[in-house]
Amino acid sequence: MTLEIQNISKKYRGNSYALKDFSITIEKGILGLLGPNGAGKSTLLKMIATIHKPTNGIICLNKNNILKDANYMRKQLGFLPQDFGVYPNLNAYEFLNYMAAMKGIGGSNLKPRITQLLEGLNLIHAAHKPLGSYSGGMKQRIGIAQVLLNSPKIVIFDEPTVGLDPEERVRFRNLISDLANDCIVILSSHIVSDIDTIADQVAIMKNGSLISYGDQEQIIHIIKDKVFETTIEKDALLEFKHQHIVVSTSQKNGKLSVRYITDHPQESAIKKEANLEDAYLYLTNTH
Amino acid sequence: MKPFIAILKYDYLQRTRSYAFLITLCLSLAIAYTFVPEPNASYSTIRIADYVGYYNSAWFGYVTAIMTSIFLSLIGFYLVNSSIATDVNSKIGQVFAATPISNFKYLFSKVLSNFLVLLSIVCVVIFMSVILFFLYNDGYTFEPLTFIKPYFIITLPALFFVSVLAVIFEVIFKKYTVIQNVGFFILFSMMMVFSAKTETDFALDLFGSKIVIEQLQETVKTITNTSDNIDLTIGYVLGNVKKANKFLFEGIAFPTVFILSRLLWVLLGISLIIIIAPLFHRFNVNDRTPAKKAATNEEKQFISNTIQLMNMSIVSTNYSIFPLIKTDFLLLLRKGKKWLWLINLIGMILSLALPLTIAHQMVLPVLWFLQVHRLSDLTSKEITNHIHYFSFSSYKPLSRLLVSQLLSAIALMLLLALPLIIRLGITTNFEGVISIILGSVFIVSLTAFLGILTNRKKLFEILFFMITYANLNRIPFADYFGGLTHSDFYLIQLGLISIFLISLSVLRRKHQLSQ
User: Fold this and answer.
1) What is the separation, in whole angstroms, between the first and last Cα of chain A?
2) What is the CATH number of the domain that holds A282?
3) How far apart are CA B27 and CA B30, in angstroms?
């Protein structure tokens, strides 16, 4: 199973680009898509999900151009958009049946599968209540349930952990790991911790372009020996930020402990082991 | 004062920067074109017996001002009566509620914003009327002050008060839009039938038209030397082929009392907003959905150990659109309050009990119009509910989803018309049966097209209201369900228009899917 994205661009009026000459080849496993807000992640995912079409370029799934044959993708797609909604007057069973019908699936196994999903996502207690009465987290779980209705071969999650509490996030990651055994999972987020524990491959985007792509070790290697920690006075922070890329700060005995990225560390600075978040901040600040 | 102006300004901009408003302006332009008939036109708008005025500035100004006052008051209410609901739905209202702005200032900004929206339409009407004056005038020069005076005295106070009423109805009836719509229609009808003869009566006439009409009648009585009542028509009367005689109308000198009364309408409107302000819910809205219980630990646990994707039931392919039709039909049935179905039931019983002609001509259009809230977002509800990410990436969304939406809505309309269809069938009036079936297809294709075109429901709501108003006035042109007698080509025309609208809907949705 291969998803090839070749030189796609999305141009808006006024010569602005949401995506510019973007290429990537994705194989089975989990791809973590990282980027600041406005990087073009959602636009890319909507193109893969056949909702938007690029101005230029092609997208092929197993050598089939999905821009010409969108239904080839749709038959094997599971998509959880960032800001999806529900019909408030339907209950969970009715809504999932509707989603199943939209996807072109059914049969005698549909009802047991919906029940299994609702049980697995712990929504079975509320299955007959109207969706309008659900909390944000419960709606998010209904979204996840509809993704899993059709045993998808391509799964796209756009900022899936929004609305989930920390405990739910951990469980969600486990579910994705389970899911990725047999299909392509693309997971977008601007929260690095959502990605670094589960993604096989990581792509970092900024301003509609791909600025880095590879496995986590490859990306982290870019800033090997560049991450340091030091202590500074509070009022020196602004000046410090002008000179270095600051990853994080924390209070320590009335001073600030600063984790930062630099080629020229202070003498008192302590070298730290680099991680994906350091690499992400380094790449998005230097491109 | 600054926040008040800001709310007013951005509310107005938000409402006018939409495709739907652009279409509304275009429609206003088209309707304004008909206010003063072309000299050889086969219809009339304001006609006193066989007389109309010479096409001078006064006649153009007064006729268009009266027509605007009456029609824009009616249609305008439906255009602007969701300004608070929009803030509730967008949740921006909760932000307002947390600011120091007072209820009165917020509501009054909504009144002014409503008024500005209507004023924009008035400007379009004036623009079109001036163009028509230069095309049709009977050799008279254009006098701007004479032309514009009736707009200030007749039209603007009426529209201001309608803007007030729209806000008051929203505050009192909250999200019960059916009550708002029906309530205003009853109020409007009462105002229209109110007969004014004295200066006090004229002052009580919200639309400000009766004093002008009275003077026009008196003038014609003088010309014709008669003291009998004279036939007067206001509104669209088709088939008026007899050429009208002309008389010189130079406007009227409005009595001071009348001018003061127009100001009093404005002051009354402001006073009503002051009175109603303490009753405003300030976005503490009870949505009447079941209360969200605190999640139990069991519910809180997100993914239990029982979910094993490999062991789950395997579903099969099923491309039937029947499940889609079923759910779309369910969505239509569940829309709105349950007690509205009681009204539908009464309508269906009346379709059975009343004489066939009345059931067909009066009950059916009203019964169908009562479904306006169910039909109006038929093809835009995916966007407003953020479901379109799912539906647009579903399998064959055009041939399956759109078709299921159309079929479910047609099924609903036919279900409501079933008693009438059965009666027509029993009397072997098969043309009537086919008319009703085609009528349901037409109205559904109209809402589908306008929903896809604008991604909103308002335009269809306004048009459906106008069509129903015309139906109740038995205007043949607007009869889409065969209530009146028509030529042999009527059914073919109705069918072709529906096919045209559905084709446009498909093309537009296809375009949306290819973006």
Assistant:
1) 32
2) 3.30.70
3) 5
d(CA A283, CA A96): 41
* DSSP classification of residue A91: B
pLDDT per residue over B393-409, tens digit each? 888 888 899 999 999 99
Give the minimum alpha-carbon distance from A129 to chain B in angstroms, rounded to a whole number.
Answer: 8
How far apart are the CA of A71 and the nearest CA of chain B, in angstroms? 6
- The nearest CA of chain B is from the CA of A217 a distance in Å of 29
Q: Decide if A97 and B323 are in contact by the 8 Å CB cutoff.
A: yes
Domain ranges of chain B: 2-279, 322-513
Contact B303 A83 (CB under 8 A): no
ipTM, two decimals, is 0.78
Q: Give residue-wise pLDDT tens across range B66-112.
A: 999 998 998 889 889 888 988 887 778 887 888 888 899 999 999 99
- Smallest Cβ distance to A85: which of B331, B387, B394? B387
Average pLDDT over chain A reads 90
DSSP letters for A169-188: HHHHHHHHHHHTTSSEEEEE
Q: Are both A37 and A98 inside the same structural domain?
A: yes
- Whether residues A194 and A231 share a domain: the answer is no
Taking CB atoms and an 8 Å cutoff, what residues of chain A touch B330? 90, 94
Closest CA to B79 of B128, B125, B114, B31: B114
Q: How confident is residue B288, by pLDDT bands cut at 50, 70 and 90?
A: very low
